[in-house]
Design a protein that fits this description.
Elements lengths: L9 E2 L13 H10 L6 E2 L4 H5 L5 E3 L6 H15 L6 E3 L6 H17 L7 E3 L7 H13 L5 E3 L6 H11 L5 E2 L1
Parallel strand pairs: 1-2, 3-4, 4-5, 5-6, 6-7
Helix pairs in contact: 1-3, 3-4, 4-5, 5-6
Length: 175
């Protein structure tokens, strides 16, 4: 898809673009972006530094990440791990349910491979639904390095109960 643009180093589709997902469209586009090694920056995402594990704190607060950016971020975590990354603030970034779930599942998978040192995750105010909350709860249960989770208080009672259950046996700060 992007292979004919061999000198492309930066790509931003966040401003004024509405991407409609046909079920796998965003995933295919994210895969093409991550698979294009010359793309160093995708919107606010510093892909070059993330791939090289040169980032310890990732501040994407109020940046136009969206579901596509979240999928790209998740795929970078899956392929490169996130061993040097300790703190992620991806709050107010328009992730929606699908994006929040993708990031949480990727961080959880990296934790299972011992390639995750995340201690702080700020993921609130992203219109997170049931599947996103379930993925975040699973991350809380399985990622032993996670110490602080910041998520908006606009979650319903069921979502709060799901997170509380996941944190029951953990000394995890929920703010």
């Amino acid at each position: 898809m992007l292979s004919s643009f061999s000198h492309l180093t930066s790509l931003d589709v966040s401003i004024g673009t509405t991407l409609v997902d046909d079920g796998r469209g965003l995933q295919r586009l994210a895969h093409a972006i991550v698979g294009h090694p010359s793309i160093e920056k995708f919107g606010p995402l510093p892909l070059k530094e993330l791939r090289a594990k040169e980032v310890s704190t990732l501040n994407l607060r109020r940046q136009p990440v969206g579901p596509l950016g979240a999928l790209v971020l998740a795929m970078v975590f899956e392929s490169s791990g996130c061993g040097t990354l300790y703190s992620i603030d991806i709050s107010h970034a328009g992730l929606q349910d699908k994006g929040a779930a993708a990031v949480a599942y990727a961080l959880e998978a990296a934790a299972q491979k011992k390639a995750n040192n995340i201690s702080t995750l700020e993921i609130g105010y992203n219109s997170i639904g049931d599947s996103g909350v379930k993925a975040i709860a699973q991350l809380c249960e399985r990622c032993r390095t996670l110490q602080t989770l910041s998520i908006d208080d606009a979650l319903g009672r069921d979502a709060q109960a799901t997170l509380a259950k996941a944190m029951k046996n953990r000394n995890l700060l929920w703010v």
